[in-house]
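Q: Got a minute? One more chain.
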Amino acid sequence: MVGAHDSMSAMADRPEDTTAAARPRPLEQIFPLRGDANRGREMQATWRSFCRDRSPMVKSVLAGGRSSPEIAYQLGELLHNHFRTRGVTLTSYELRRLVSELLARHGSHADREDKSPVDDAEPRPLVRAPDSTSQPPASSTPMVPVREPAPFEQLLIRALELVRGRLVSRDRQAARAAVDEAVKSIAREQGGELPSATRERLMVSVLSEVIGLGLIDRLWADPTVSAILVHGPSSVFVERDGTLQGITEGFRDRAHLLEQMERLAGRPASGVADLRLRDGSTGVVIFPPVAPEGPVLALRRFQPGEATLDRLVASGALDRPVADLLRLGARSSLNMVITGPSRSGKTALLAAVAREFDSVLRVVTVARHRQFRWPAGSKIELVTSREVSFAALMEASERLKPELLVLDSVDVEEVAALCGRLVRGASGMLASLRPDAMSALPAHSVDLVVRIDRGGVERFGVAAVEDAAGDAVFRREGGKLVRGKASPVFAAVVRDRGYGEALARLLN
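A: Always. Here it is, folded:
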């Protein structure tokens, strides 16, 4: 058709768009741009290209007769996909701010288009052509109706309806079976199999609602959330980067909120329940009648950089003998490794040791994020970027002559650089490795290994402390930490450093 413009045509062929949507506000006026300057430039360019190229799709979403949550969800999908295909991943906060910006700009622009350009004081009624004038000619090819997938929130609500009709027990196995049947029913309703990612997310979310903490679980799974505040069923706030933000999702009603809070904290006679999660996070739940509009929840994430060895011991996350051995190891410049699954407390343990010595030793930390940000005169904090890899920072850190080098989350690809440092005879290193990276580390290459594992259903803890020969110095048996080898391989180094008597008292 003459004049038609394909949205996939080359940019050079497109007429310049002079609408308000094509002249977006700079990102720094929408939300603060923190961190990598290169990422900021890429985001700016991607935001301009989105407003230039995706404006018709945005208008289509706004004009589709959808509910407000559906509009926000679909705008978020457009933004996420556009930025992701250009190598930029938006945080949840950035995504929400951009959705709000699109709603504000396109909404006001659409309002202006519907007004008479001649006289705003007396707008003329808008005359609309009948829909039949824009219909394509009849075709002999049968049309297959396209069924848009329901937003995830709708799938979740439907799954919960089905599960409640099938669930006969709160037992995890029975709940999983009921959820599995509900998800299969939803797939049939949607006309086929759900995408595997959607299916898995739906299974986890519904199980969380049925036997977990539902919305609280979903919010807490976002590592950018540092705190959750709940003032009532529809008053839910999260804290990110020190800023408190309200969220659109809430609890169904007061009874639903009360059920989840009782599942989280019980219901003490005083009406006030203090919380301590296994990751070290703390909080409080205040029940009615003490909180008439409640329950009220305040939950604050434990930040690894706030850890100290004494705090970890006091919370039950660390045994005193292991804490004392790590102190001796750091003072003796041993090469030590902490290994365990994700979110098991490895970074917190690194931070605790580093804080112990940041005023008496020259401490250098290398990490992918700012985990070691407390002020200290003798501590140097290094953080990776797109331009500088972890391995490159590890090499650079040697030139800073650290007495204690702290390496957070060494990956499989970086084990070779770590081994190179060890071969050169460097000492005074404390590193955390996931089990897959640990398996790539040559045996007997470090002085001391702390293995963190699940110590029970509700907690993680130190499962064993081993020397270079792989013999247990401490090990956990029957839920208790017991002593093992009385003369570990590293004992001679500790004695040479002047701490032989302290080690002997600890191990005998």
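A: Confidence is low (pLDDT under 50) at residues 1-22, 108-150.
Q: Perfect, thanks.
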